Amino acid sequence: MFKWLHPYAKPETVYQLCGRFYPWLIALGVVLLLVGNIWGLAFTPADYQQGDSYRIIHIHVPAAIMSMGTYSAMAIAAFIALVWQIKVAQWSVLAIAPVGAIYTAIALITGMAWGKPMWGTWWVWDARLTSELVLLFLYLGVIALSGAFSDRQTGAKAASLLAIVGVINLPIIHFSVEWWNTLHQGASLTKFAKPSIDPSMLWPLLISILAFKVIMLALVCLRLRTAILLNEQHRPWVKNLVEAQ
Amino acid sequence: MVMLGQFIKRELRLLARQKADWLNPLLFFVIVLCLFPLGVGPSPNLLRIMAPGIVWIAALLSVLLAAERLFKDDYRNGVIEQLVAARQPLLSFVLAKLFTNWLSTGLPLVLLSPVVALLLNIDAAGFVALLFTLLLGTPLLSLLGVMGAALTVSADKGGILLALLILPLYIPLLIFASAAMEAATTGMSYHGQLAIMLAMLLFALALIPLAVIGALKLNVS
């Protein structure tokens, strides 16, 4: 299997692969996003309890799910980078981190916008909200660490190590925050029970989740291509590429 | 084992010569504690409610302050590079750093806890809980602080970066330590919280030295 995988560790191959995938991924992502969001925002029935404001889940839930999925993708890349010392994996950690941070921020902001009419407040110290906020801090830590070194290589390796430490810590943080919240439970606001979702609302939601995933992959492809060019600028194949254009 | 003893002796000698490195964070801890009553008001009841959070946040910050300079001098004068180049196992060096860091920043916090209890109007039951949580929690603070210091040792802007990386990881400790103190002041049992803190400490003790060694190596390569 390693023999088969080996060529894919070569930056040039990855660059071309990402270039080939990117247009398809971004086109598919945009189409899915348009279908999922327009269907979800305009054509699904209103919720019997929450009215129209529930519709924000078609943006909020995909962003929240993918903010966590993206972190695990980043941690897997970081593990590969540190164990097998594959440079492309290091660069992909840095390519993934900002995308995940933006998804986390989208999940937090849309959640706040939904919380205002539903709970009557922009922010409550609920366990899930707090975990998501900590996730954002962990992403920002990885990004900040990668930029803090004069040597890009060291920065990428340090960020990879931090990503792995973060992924070990995330469950501990998540469960301790959950425990803390149940201990401090005072606000009845958070006892809001979500009605199990109707199929007519579920389908656009699933399409939106898929759209967020595909768009994440597309953005990572794009960012990884840039990172490869930046780090390999002294290599002959990059020079040939630039001269050819 | 001999190496570990040698490294500990060296660290202690360095600490004895550079007293500011570990005295300033302690001073910082006491000053932060004094600022809270000035900020939120001196009412004894209010202070008693807020004491667990205040003590632990001040402890986090002061350990962080001490951790920042932990590997800086050794990095600048090439000690770490020599250790890596000589293919010495870094484990005893890291363990010596951890132990002396806790001895110089964690243990003094435990010893200062009677003063803290006086300043913040903590009763006897709360004081016992404070003592136990500090005893179990400060080694974990040191472990995480040492890891952050090792990660950022060759970074250009280490200080504030270290805080950004490490503070989110302190959250579970903060939650359980202040929960244990809160339970103690209301007369409830807090063995569960202490057990979880001990579990987190042992878990960190098993894994974090490896992360520290990895971080030091990638900073000198």
Strand content of chain B: under 5%
Straight-line distance between termini of chain A: 36 Å
Multimer state: heterodimer
The number of strands of chain A is 0
Order of helices and strands of chain A: HHHHHHHH
Overall average pLDDT of chain B: 88
Poorly predicted parts of chain A: 184-195
Q: Could you give a short account of the major beta sheet of chain B? A: none
Helix content of chain A: over 70%
Query: What is the overall shape of chain B?
Result: elongated
The shape of chain A, in one word, is globular
Order of SSEs of chain B: HHHHHHHHHH
Question: Count the helices of chain B. How many?
Answer: 10
What does the largest sheet of chain A look like?
A: none
Strand segment count of chain B: 0
Number of domains of chain A: 1
Q: Radius of gyration of chain A, Cα only, in angstroms?
A: 20 Å
Architecture overview:
Chain A has 245 residues and is an all-alpha fold. Chain A is 78% helix and 0% strand. Chain A has one domain. The longest helix of chain A has 33 residues. About 5% of the residues of chain A have low confidence. With 221 residues, chain B is mostly helical. Chain B has one domain. Chain B contains ten helices and no strands. The mean pLDDT of chain B is 88. At the A-B interface, helix 5 and helix 6 of A face helix 8, helix 9 and helix 10 of B.
